[in-house]
Specification:
Length: about 250
């Protein structure tokens, strides 16, 4: 710094430039601590140390009951954000109703500004139009509605049930990160399928009904299929074009 005296503007500019590096180091240290905790202890830590206006997003997929139960045990009235594309399986809508009643969920459902029928009239079946069409479909029906929901609820801490074992795109996810200016917290990110099964059994919670039909991941009816011999979990979604809709990576 050559022993120069900075004015306030220069000092603030320098501090702002250092902030990302300082934040990354802090997150790394915190994640090392969180890695040693059980999932329920992680949630208690987040409830104590992370900002208010917290919310949980859920697709009400195969393992959804785990996070819905865990979070409502810690914070019964936590907002649960669901993006309804209009193309969910009938079993999924019934599953939502079942868990909403059973866990007394504070459910907030958000949808695209354009109805499914109108989208098809204007664009055709976007999910049948390759990667570009699928990305456009996901942005209209999942990413933009969730962005709106997070903004409306002024969410500062966002919980989700992503796990590293679900996909190669999730293999290095930390418990705590920053996404678009808010904290992202994944309490069960290091859980195995066995961990999920044991939690559900211990708490007498159900898998999604389509689990019994071979589904290991469930989204829209047109973009989900059962796991068959030779497939990975990633192959069962989006007609094998990818595992992520962008909800947890693009926002």
């Amino acid at each position: 710094m050559n022993n120069l005296v900075w004015d306030d503007a220069e000092k603030q500019a320098w501090l702002a430039a250092q902030a990302p590096n300082v934040q990354a180091l802090e997150l790394q240290a915190i994640n090392q601590e969180l890695a040693q905790m059980e999932a329920s202890a992680r949630v208690r830590w987040a409830q104590t140390h992370l900002p208010g206006n917290q919310a949980l997003s859920s697709s009400f997929g195969i393992q959804a009951a785990v996070m819905l139960h865990m979070m409502t045990q810690a914070q019964p009235n936590i907002p649960v954000l669901l993006t309804d594309t209009g193309y969910l399986f009938a079993d999924t809508y019934r599953f939502i109703d079942e868990l909403k009643a059973r866990l007394s969920l504070n459910l907030s459902v958000v949808r695209a500004s354009m109805s499914p029928a109108w989208q098809e009239a204007r664009f055709g079946r976007l999910w049948e139009q390759g990667s570009d069409g699928l990305n456009r479909y996901n942005r209209i029906n999942k990413i933009e509605p969730m962005e709106r929901a997070l903004a409306e609820h002024q969410v500062q801490t966002w919980y989700a049930g992503l796990r590293r074992s679900q996909a190669s795109t999730r293999a290095k996810l930390p418990v705590l990160s920053m996404q678009a200016g808010r904290y992202k917290f994944l309490p069960i990110v290091d859980w195995s399928n066995k961990d999920v099964y044991e939690y559900l059994k211990l708490n007498d919670l159900p898998y999604h009904p389509l689990w019994e039909q071979g589904y290991v991941s469930v989204g829209d009816w047109h973009s989900s299929q059962p796991l068959t011999l030779g497939m990975s979990e990633e192959d069962t979604r989006f007609n094998g074009l990818g595992r992520e809709c962008g909800l947890h990576f693009d926002i």
